[in-house]
Amino acid sequence: MSRERDVRPDTVGGGAHMSVAAFILIGVTVLVCAFIQGSTGMGFAMVAAPVVTLLDPSLIPVMLLVLMIPLNAYIGWREREALDWRGVKWISVGRFAGTFIGLWILLIVNLQQLGLLIGWSTVVAAAVALMVPAFDPNRTGMMIVGFITGITETSTGVGGPPLALAYQHKPGPVLRSTVAVCFLVGEVISLVVLAFSGRISGETLLLCAALLPFIAAGSFASRFVHHRLDGRLLRYIVLGFAIISGIVVILQA
Q1: pLDDT above 60 (res 8)
Q2: How far apart, in whole angstroms, are the C-alpha atoms of residue 124 and residue 16?
Q3: Are the C-beta atoms of residues 87 and 176 closer than 8 Å to each other?
Q4: 37 near 71, Cβ under 8 Å?
Q5: Among 96, 142, 182, 210, which is least packed by CB within 10 angstroms?
């Protein structure tokens, strides 16, 4: 067993010795990603995870899960009238089951392997989201989407692409509100499971608290443009950046 893997449990959710420059870079990334997700309904974790992994992989997935709770709560409330409750229900059922496999993956990998996992999962998921044609999943399909999301989001913090596949061709308000509430339910489930397994540190939570103003600024800015932006163009930009960032993480790992 490598020394890197041995120290992993003590360093998960690190950031205690983060430099000011690294904090500012993460803060700006969080602000931009909150704006992107608030505007398009997706993109926060796909863009933020590779950047955070390059700076401090021990922050993944806890930091992303914690920060996305207020972000998705706001988005879901803002467009609550368009919410697809049926989709939320069945995706959440599958999401709960996938959470435990995601935790198992997180427990058996070291930081280098986690970097590779995040990089490859980001690239593959974004590529699939770009290529798969429109489809309307039934109850079983929604549960499968939730199951895959539970695995990927709990282990890497990136869970958007499966949900984007299910809703990317729906009207903007339906996509944004439904994906946000699915994320919100899943993030709470993942964090409870991670907390019981001892994977959350006080240092991570303090860092998340310090980053909340960036989340608030990005979310607030998105309310002025979410109904005006070309969702398809932004989707391509987000997925393209995610692919490039994922490749950078793979090369570094």
Answers
A1: no
A2: 32
A3: no
A4: yes
A5: 210
